[in-house]
Every structure is written in structure tokens, then in C-alpha cells.
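Limitations

Structures in this collection are predictions, not experimental determinations, and the ligand pose is part of the prediction. Treat each record accordingly. The example that follows, with pyridoxal-5'-phosphate as the small molecule, is included so readers can see exactly what is and is not provided: the inputs are given verbatim, and the output is the predicted complex.
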Amino acid sequence: MREEILAFEKASQSLDPSPDERAGLRGQIISHTEDFIDHIEDRKAFFSDSGGDSIKSAKPGKETDTIEGIISKLREELDSDGINPASGGHLGYIPGGGIYASSLADYWAAITNRYAGVFFANPGAVRIENKLIRWLNDEVGYPDGAHGNLTSGGSIANLVGIVTARSAMNIKAVDIPKSSIYMTQQGHHSLDKAIKVAALHECHIRFVEMDEQYRMSIPSLKRLIQQDKEAGIRPFLLLGSAGTTDLGAIDPMDQMADVAAENNMWFHVDAAYGGFFMLTEQIGDRFRGMERSDSICIDPHKGMFLPYGIGVCLVRNGELMKKAFAFKASYLQDIEGANEEINPMDVSPEMTKHFRGLRMWLPLMLYGIEPFKACLEEKLLLAKYFHSEISKIPGFEAGPEPQLSVVTFRFLPEEGEPDQVNKKILEELHKDGRVFFSSTTIDGNFTLRLAILSFRTHLRTIDLLIEILQQIVQRLHLQPRPVARSN
Ligand SMILES: *Cc1c(COP(=O)(O)O)cnc(C)c1O
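Predicted complex:
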């Protein structure tokens, strides 16, 4: 038997490479990723078609290749395909981040592979996560006793908030048909998904009207609640947005908090996109009232520019999270009582998870919060700058003054259907690829939309975009619709 064991050990040796082998692998990957960053300004933000089909034809587990071979294939098919979220030219959807320090923190976290689900297993890792959660709770203005969880992203953070609400409000299966949830049509679809996953979709889901700035209308909310109460339906969950994805609209938090308190409802705020703007002077107290909510979703892989894979759910009363998520297992009996702090696994659907705290901790500890604030202030101003510059170009009509860093606009042509013309402009932009943005539909109109949130988007990016848009208008021979003159 000993010989057989040793033979297997030998056959699996490649899983634990020697120092020389590690240096070889590391050198190749680092030189590739350094080259990627060194040339990020020249790389497209969008690749409409990449070469090669080695990924399509690959047979994982059945074939092997050298690191050089793997990199050379993936350079095209992975790094030069679709959207490039590392590019400052990415202004589509909600742009991603990817700050360097976090990538190294991930490397570190993966090498040491600390277990961040349970305090007993790695007190340091859990302390780091809980400290970050406390920091955010302080920033939003939640009291002592608030807690939270680092999730994989905003969708799961919304799910954690909604499941906590269901448990805290004691909504059982029999109550579902007699309970109601309120949101606007601008609420992110991850809220609808979370409602469904939490089996709350058979509640009455009320879409509250919006004002002209696409914020929840309080009179409409009050009216719907009143009607539901009269019909014997229990309003239990109010969903607000601190920055909608479509338009960056900020719901009236303070008044929503009043309504929630008056009606004994759980108030959850989706601040996945907008949340970190609370740190800026420009937004100042525009989120006032958010501190009176019961739970908040906020996405560091958006507003803190971290690489994808980190969201946060904050809950005003941390004990309620434990009620919703904590379970016991006999094989974990040794660790009961050994946990000085709340275990992440006790406030989350996850157990074993990536140690995500380090990727947020390292940059915060290295640089402090100031550069993050400055970067967010810059984004808010860039959105205003774009809004004013695009308005100066004949034919372009900008949407509302941006509340955060999303700007919508359309070209109004002298001839032709505006929707078709704007689709064509977007197609041309994607073909060019140096800058990428996407579209949305507002009041039935196909609308161009950009969101500025990449830490690499700067003034030169916006100037380049304006130049590209002007070139496209010329190339397509578009004439602006004459402006109606008022005498
Ligand atoms: C991005 C976003 C989400 C979803 O977050 P993920 O991190 O993509 O899961 C939820 N709400 C809003 C407002 C968002 O912008």
C-alpha cells in the first residue's frame, strides 16, 4: 500500500509546484497582466469580434498546454473579447473597477486560503470583514448593533436584505397572499429576482408611480398603502433606490423612511450603484434618510472600483440577520462559544466563501479613503461635463441633469426615425470600440445612456467620446432637426 500511495503522490506533484516552477508560471502571468495594464489606454473598450476558437473547441481535463500556449490563446479570446471592464472607456451599464492593490490582495488571499466563514477558523479574516462592515455602517449612519455581510455582489446583497426582511417581519407562507411589497419600475431587476428566490413573488407587488425625475412618488405610495390596508392586505416591505441603474435617480429616502415607520414596514435601500457617492461633498445629504432604513445593499465592485466579486448587505439590527440565517451543525460543535465575533456564515446564505475582505482592506489601508472620494467626485463632475458638452452639439438632446453619474441623451435627426438613428449611432460606436456605452428605453424612446464609474475614466476619455460622436454624426451624414424658434 505504501508504494501505491507514493505513486499517487508523485502523479499529483504538479498541483504543488517547486519554487522554480512557481517562478516560471508567475513570471509569465505577471508579464502578461503588466503588459495588459501598460497598454490599457490603447486597448479598446469593446471588441465586436475576437479571433480564434480555442475556448470553444477545448476539452477541459483531456488536454494540457504550456502557460505560454494558454496565455497566447486567451490573450485574444478572453482579453480582447466583448466589453473590456478594465478600460476607462467602458461607460456602459454600470462600469466595473479592478484596482491593482485588490488584485494582489486576491492573490494573497488565495495563496494563504484563509477560511473567512467562521471566526474560530481565522479570527483575523473575520475581524477584517467585520471591521469593514462596521466602517460602512458608520458611514451610512447605522447605530451600534448594526451588522452586515460581504457578498459576491449586489444581487446577493439584495437577496440577503430581503430574506432578512421576510424573517424579521415574520412572513410565513400563509401570509404571502395577504402581504404587499412596494417599489418603482426603475427598481433594479435583482430586486424582482430576490423577491422570487425568497418565494415572495406571490405577495402583491405594487409599482409606485414616479415623479418627473423618476423618483418614487410619496403621494402615490401612500395611496397604494391605504388601498391595500383597506383591502386587508399587509404592507410589509418598501424597496427604495439610492441611485437607479437606468438614470441614477435617488428616491426620497427621508419621506420613505417616514412612511415605512408609520406603517410598520421593512425599508430596504438598493444603493448598489449609488451608495458610495455618499462619501462625496457633491452628493452631501442627498441620501438623507437612508440611515433610517432597515437594510442597505451597496456594491464595492462598483463604487469602490474593486474587481468583480464583492457586494455588501448592511442591516440596522444585526440580530435579525442571525435569526434569518444562523443554523447549527453537530460537526461544528467544537466552535460554538469559540467565536468572539459574529461569523459571516451565520448572517449569509454562504458558508465557505472567498476571503473577500482582504481586497477591500488592502487598498483602504494603503491609501485611506481620500483617493476614493476624489475619484467619485471626479466621476460626478465628468457626468455634468458630458451633459453640458453634448448639449452644445447641434442635434443632440441631453436628458435630465444627472443626479449621479448616469447621463442619457438622443440625437434628433432632421429626417428619419429617431430610434433607428440612435441605434445606428450606437452600432457605429461599438464598431469603433475605443469607448463603449449602452442604451435604454425611457418613456418608450430608445435612448443613449452612459454611466461614468470606472476609476480609469478621466477628462480625456470624455473629450475623446465627444470627438467620436461628432465623427459618427458626420460619417452617417446626419442633419440635426431644426430647433423651433420662439419669437
Ligand atoms: C448593479 C446593480 C445591482 C446588482 O448588483 P450585482 O453586483 O450586479 O449583482 C443591483 N441594484 C443596482 C441599482 C445596481 O446598479
